[in-house]
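> tool_call: predict_assembly(chains=two)
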Amino acid sequence: MNILTCKDLTKKYGRKTALDGANLTIESGHIVGLLGPNGSGKTTLIKLANGLLTPDNGSVEVCGMRPGRETHALVSYLPERAVLPLWMTAAQTVDFYADFYTDFSREAAQEMLAHLQIDPKQRIRQMSKGTREKVQLIMVMSRRAKLYLLDEPIGGVDPATRDYILNTIISHYNPEAAVLISTHLIADVEKILDDVLLIRQGQVVMQAPVDRIREEQGMSVDALFREVFKC
Amino acid sequence: MLRKLMKHELRATGRVMVPMLLITLICAVGGNLSVYHLVESGSVVLNFLGIMLLTAFFAALAGTFIVSFVLMIRRFYQNLLRDEGYLMMTLPVTVNTHVLGKLLVSVFWAAVTAITALLAMFILMFELEYVDLIFYDLGEMLALLQFDDLYLMDYAGHAALFVIEVMLLLVAADACLCLQLYAAMAAGHSFTHHKGLFSVAAYFVFAAGWSILKNGAQRVFYLAAPDGIRLGLQNISAFAATHINMLAMLLLTVIPAALWYAVTIWFLKHRLNLD
């Protein structure tokens, strides 16, 4: 089943074209790496899928619907920046997610907070950047969503936390769902990916299963990325 | 969902507003002490302290109104158009519900601020010996009221209606101001650059546009209204004229409010540009 479909998706910021007629399809049960250098259009694509930006041309659909209230209930989105209100405590953040998402598991969130030794009474404002990112990821992965859109989930954390985050993604995501992970830290995520989607200057240049890349190209995804995007 | 949004909005704003309102009431008690005991005590120190307490009261009173106004703008801007917008605008909630939630909570705090200001002024002027006087005057008033006096009852009915109309107008005016600011921010933030500048420009463009529209409509009404209506309006009672006037003012507040609401929704639905 197609979870995410983009057809000729185009987005411009003034004169700069961030996404240039992107076409792609993501099916359920797949963990897909959205890979590309900085400024290639990864974040723009994810924002369009969330309805945070309006496309200039083309269309984006989640489970056959345009981004809106219905798709927001199906998508669990981790932005690339800290978005949780600073005045909230971790426990209030759990309450907030539980209030709005019927697929949110309070138990899973509390278990992960305890595992990472995050005090539920601590305010987001008092947390380090890394801890804020962990809380945000815990909230996102505590949902049983149809589509997880994770924008740079391991960008700002130490290697040990990276492993924990990747394990969390594998162990907590709904197997019938699709996961789209945007990153340029390919070596770290390669082991959990089923497919990769290479994006350059706003265009999708390759969409293929990781196993096929290894078989046909005879190289890892990391090596392929370095070759495709060689400066 | 509106109830849940309002719950979180009240929690977010209450942590700023409740202490501000309490400080105002505490300062009012200090102001009362100052008015009746310190300022005219004859002691330089107590006199100075009294003036300081009175200054603190008026500063707190003004501060509460300013904070309430700034918070109304800041919550919309930060919670929907900045980083928190990534969280809020991806909730399974319609844009209508978001805007309505923000509006209702803003109007609520404006009303609470106004009531607190009245209460604070009452506390400032309150003296124990006045209590008897107030109850005495109330008793006198009630004694004068004759419920079988039709003229008096008619007058009281109009007065009560006028008070309701004034309150409705105040609420509508506050909602209209909120929505005009929301519309300007939503329009300004649809641009890629200079969002703040475009928001300010949008505010003035909207204000000018509405002013032109309103004046044009009034002119058309004046020229096109049948003589019967104009003559009819000249021959009505003072009470009726007052109510018609209030109704017209209410309409001239509700219409632009509805317009700003629609503009806000349109921009947030079709031109949302979080970057």
